[in-house]
Design a protein that fits this description.
Number of helices: 2
Distance between the termini: 36 Å
Mean pLDDT: 91
Protein name: GFA family protein
CATH topology: Metal Binding Protein, Guanine Nucleotide Exchange Factor, Chain A
Strand content: 35-45%
Radius of gyration: 15 Å
InterPro entries: CENP-V/GFA, Mss4-like_sf
Number of domains: 1
Structural class: mainly beta
Helix content: 10-25%
Pfam family, one: GFA
CATH architecture: Beta Complex
Low-confidence stretches: none
Largest sheet: 8 strands, mixed
Keywords: Lyase, Metal-binding, Zinc
Number of strands: 11
GO molecular function, one term: metal ion binding
């Protein structure tokens, strides 16, 4: 499926299962003011406009990316040197064709801001539960 930033400088071809995850971690909330909604890419996205992508290493295990032109969030990249499987979590808002997307999981729910609550009855994981699930727990 095709995804692109607001200005069109970056486009992504992404294979995914149409399942949206909401992350409530402090970094996502600081970036968006609320939860970050992403889809897990099945393999690396095919990228056009790579020169327009800015990268920010936001943790020991991942980097956040954005369009240098319009500032649109693109994806979170779980890096291979993290010791976990490499993964790409693509901003769900980049897809114009999203009619069959469904919220399937919320993570870092213990970090959620007090000023909003999602009404969907989806599985929820705390920070500790999520980190244990991906193998990053200490």
């Amino acid at each position: 499926m095709k995804a692109q930033c607001q200005c069109g400088s970056v486009t992504l071809e992404v294979r995914h299962n149409h399942e949206v995850h909401a992350c409530h971690c402090s970094k996502c909330r600081q970036r968006t003011g609320g939860a970050s909604f992403t889809l897990t890419a099945e393999g690396a996205p095919q990228i056009s406009g790579e020169e327009n992508i800015g990268r920010y290493r936001s943790s020991d295990w991942g980097e956040r990316t954005f369009c240098k032109e319009c500032g649109n969030d693109l994806y979170f990249h779980l890096l291979p040197e993290s010791g976990m499987d490499e993964a790409w979590y693509v901003n769900a808002g980049l897809f114009a064709d999203n009619a069959d997307f469904a919220l399937k999981l919320q993570i870092f729910t213990d970090c959620q801001a007090p000023y909003y609550h999602l009404s969907d009855d989806t599985p929820k994981m705390t920070e500790q539960e999520f980190l244990a699930w991906v193998g990053a727990a200490e």
